[in-house]
Description:
The chain is of the alpha/beta class. 36% of the residues lie in helices and 24% in strands.
Amino acid sequence: MILVSDIGNSRIKIALFDNSINPIFFESIEHDESLILKCLNNILEKNYNIENIYYAGVNKSLNGIFEKTSKLIFNIAPYEITLKNFNLKENYANPKEAVGIDMILAGYAVININPHKKENKYTAVTVSLGTATTISAMTSELEFLGGTIMTGLSTSFNAMVEKTSLPTINLENITTKRNALNTETINALEAGVYYQTVGGITLALENIVIEIKEKYCLDSLIYITGGHGNNNLLPHKIMPYLVLQGIYFIHKNNATT
Length: 257
């Protein structure tokens, strides 16, 4: 059994994997050392047989905290997943090391979940709805093609509220299409969040899929992940654990040596 962690910009996700692509334990918590310790202690108390610990982080300042706490609780030195763990056929990021490890892991998970034959090559397009909204593309032969980075749903809304006298709203309630014409402020705000998020992502996806088809002659598989993925705003399959599953497949494919 392995313990894996995705250290994001706003939250840290911790999961346990055994012999399945779906975690048997999952928790998403704020960046707080006491909360991390509490989560890891809860796992320890359940007597899971943890053999390895892996993590990937886009928030480098938290890497040391996770390393320290996980080693303290389990007496196992955690292994950091980096670009060196991927046998990428090509990486078009410039500079190559600038690409977020979460973008690579999400695509890597899709490709392992959807194995292919050489003649059926495709592109995995992943949309991660987190602090930032990222759209990234990786071919099934592990060629990272690039992507788009947008302001995240909650990041954008919270910045607006801080700069205005507008009220806050529960962003988790925005799960269905909204009327574009509204006479009440709350409804107008919910509509704005919906159309900004769905409109921006939809337009970007349309152009990304067209560009991939024209430039690489490939079809695209589109998946949604990230904290706001469960809002179900887009008509694509939601896979909430893609980054964590990418780490699982790195372990399964013995790519940490």
